Amino acid sequence: MQRAPRLLWVNHFAVAPDMGGGTRHFEMGRELVRRGWSVTIAASDFHLHGRTYMRRADEMDRAPRFETLDGVRFAWLWAAPYERNDLRRAWNWMSFGRSLEQWTKESERPDIVVGSTPHLFAALAGWRAARRHGVPFVLEVRDLWPESLAVGGRSRGPSYWALHLLARFLYRVADRIVVLAQGVGDFLERAGVPRSRIVFAPNGVDVAAYELVARAPRDEVRLAYAGAHGPANGLEAVLDAAALLREEPRVSFDLVGDGPSKQTLADDARARGLRNVRFLDPLPKSAMPGFLGECDAGLMVLKDVPLFAFGVSPNKLFDYWGAALPVICNVPGEVAEMVRQAGAGIQARDASGEALAEAIRLLLAQPPADRAAMGGRGRTWVERERNRPNVAARMDDALRDLLRPAA
Question: Given the DSSP bridges, would you call strands 327-329 and 345-347 parallel, antiparallel or unpaired?
Fold first, then answer.
C-alpha cells in the first residue's frame, strides 16, 4: 500500500482551534489529510498576541511538543519570548528558525515543505529544510516583506533592503508561490515571478462550523470586531465612530481579540467615556461561531495603508459572512470589491471615524429584514468562493503537481 505523501507546513504563528487567532493552516491541513496527505504543521506555541506559552511551562522548557488534532500533527517548537516590537521580537523570529532547523535534522523526511511568511526567517528556515531533504519548496506569501514595514511607518533603511533581498531570493528559489490575494499575485508577477509558479489559495472559512440560526428581528445593531488589536488594524477609527454614535442607543461595539494596541485603545475609550464599546478577551476559534451568532454586523477595518488595497485576504471578513452577518468595511481595493460582488455590506467612503459612523447609520436605517438578507448574501458568496474545502482543493492540486515526475 502506497504511503500518504508527507507535507511539512512551516508557519511560526499557526494556532490550534483552542487558541485565539486564524486557524487557516489547521483547517487547510485537516482538508488535505482528508485528501490523502500526512500533514505536520511546525509552529511556535509562544502566542503572537497573548505573549505566553500555550503548550510548555516556561521559557526554560525548550523541547518540542507534539499533538495531533483531527489528523493534523502539530510540532510546537520553542521560540524566545518577547513583550514589545523591539530587538527581542527579532530574536523570537530567529530563535524559531533555529529550533526548526534543529528539529528537521532529526524528523522524518517530508515530500514537500511549505514555508509561510508572517515573517521571512520562518520561510527561509523552511527552504533550508526542503533543500536538506532534497524536496520541493513552496513559499506561502501571507505578508509582503519588506513592504509590510510601511504599515508601521518604518523608513527604507538597511533592514528594509536586507529583507527586500531575502524576499527576492525566496521568490526565485520557490518551486511554487501560494498567494492569498489576487493583488499579491500581480505584485509578484511585476517582480519577475512567472504566473505559472503562482497559486491562488486565499483565506476562507469552514462554513460547516457556522450553523445558521434564525435571528429575531430587532432594531439594535451590535457590531462585532474579531481580530488583532495592533497598529495595522486601524481601531482608532472605530473609537472615533463610537464617539460620534454615543447618543444612538441602538448601536454598540464589541471588540474581541488581543494585540499590542489593546490596552491603549481601552484606556482611550475609558477616558472618552465610550460606554457603547466593550473590549472582550480573545476567543478560541471554536467559540467564534457562538459569539458572532449573537451579533448583528461585522466590522472589517484596517489602517489606511496602500498595501492593504491589494495585499490582504482577511479571515475576519469570511468569518462574518460564514455567520451570515452584513459587514461595514473601510478597506479599499480588493476587499471592497469582494463586498461589492457579494452585495453583503456597506463600504465606507474612507478610513476615518466619520466615514465609519456614516456607514453604520446607513446600515441602521435599513429594516432588520434587509440587513438579514444582506448577511445571507455574504453567506452564499463565501460558501461558493471561500469555503475551506474548496480552497484546499486548489492547494491539493498544486502540491500533487509538484510530486509528479517531470515529463
Answer: parallel
In this prediction the pTM is: 0.92
Q: Whole domain around residue 274: which residue ranges?
A: 208-385
Q: What is the mean pLDDT of each run of 10 residues along the chain (407 residues)?
A: 90 90 92 98 88 89 95 96 81 93 92 95 95 96 87 76 95 97 96 96 93 82 95 96 97 94 96 97 91 96 93 94 97 97 97 98 96 96 95 96 81
| H/E element, 75 | strand 72-77
The residue ranges of DSSP E strands in 112-159, in sequence order, are 112-116, 137-141
SS3 298: strand
Query: Which 8-state DSSP code applies to residue 46?
Result: B
What CA–CA distance (Å, rounded) separates 273 from 319?
30
CATH for 217: 3.40.50.2000
Residue 1 lies in a domain: no
How many Å apart are CA 250 and CA 256, to the nearest integer?
20
φ/ψ of residue 44, rounded to 5:
-100, 140
Cell reading at 116: 509561510
Q: If we measure between CA atoms, which residue out of 144, 151, 187 comes closest to residue 167?
A: 144
Instruction: Classify residue 188: in a domain, yes or no.
Output: yes
> Which residue, 318, 327, 371, 364, is CA-closest to 345?
327
Same domain, 32 and 75: yes
CA–CA gap between residue 274 and residue 270 (Å, rounded) = 6
246, 277 in Cβ contact below 8 A? no
Integer Cα distance of 342 and 335 in angstroms = 11
Q: Which cell is 299 given?
A: 466590522
Do 182 and 212 fall into the same domain? no
Angle of CA points 99, 104, 106, to nearest 5°:
110
> 168, 141 in Cβ contact below 8 A?
no
Q: Which three cell numbers stand for residue 30?
A: 485537516
What is the DSSP secondary structure assignment for residue 197, as one 8-state letter? Answer: G
> If you count them, how many residues does the chain have?
407
Looking at the fold, whether 278 and 304 belong to one and the same domain comes out as yes
Answer yes or no: do 364 and 215 share one domain: yes
Residue labelled with grid coordinates 533581498: 165
